[in-house]
Amino acid sequence: MIGVTVLVIAALCLVIWVVIEIKRMKHKLFAIFLIFLLLFSYLSFLFVFKDKDTDFTTVPGLTEAGKLYFSWLGSVFGNLKSVTSYTIQMDWEGNSTLQR
Predict the structure, then answer these.
(1) pTM for the whole thing?
(2) Rounded to an integer, what distance in angstroms lies between the CA atom of residue 31 and that of residue 34?
(3) Contact 43, 72 (CB under 8 A)
């Protein structure tokens, strides 16, 4: 009877430890996602506004910058969609007429 109790307590401890580790891993994955999102945002802002003379101190300047950035972002996702659809439509079968 004591062996079963010890086994149940050990199993409960293991389950609790696994749940805590899973929660910690979720937080780590979320933190990594946020870091990549921040890096992407920073680098894309640098790329988009590199040669543009945009005034970030006025409301019309911010509106123009927002339009420019989201236009660029939309074109990036449009290009990704085009590349993905082109890749899916390609004939990926091997060439059986090739001789050795």
Answers:
(1) 0.59
(2) 5
(3) no
How wide is the angle at C-alpha 27 spanned by C-alphas 9 and 36, nearest 5°?
A: 155
Give 48-85 pLDDT, tens digit per residue: 888 888 888 899 989 999 999 999 999 999 999 999 99
Question: d(Cα 45, Cα 54) in Å, to the nearest integer?
Answer: 12
- Domain residue spans in the chain? 1-46, 49-87
Q: Are the C-beta atoms of 70 and 59 separated by less than 8 Å?
A: no
Kindly give, in sequence order, each residue whose CB lies less than 8 Å from that of residue 68, ignoring residues fewer than 6 positions away.
48, 49, 52, 54
Q: What's the angle, vertex CA 42, arms to CA 37 and CA 48, rounded to 5? A: 120
CA atoms of 65 and 56, how far apart (whole Å): 8
For residues 78 and 11, what is the distance between their CA atoms, to the nearest angstrom? 51
Structure tokens at 57: 């101190």
Structure tokens that stand for 11 in this block? 């199993």
Phi, psi of 24 (to 5 degrees): -65, -40
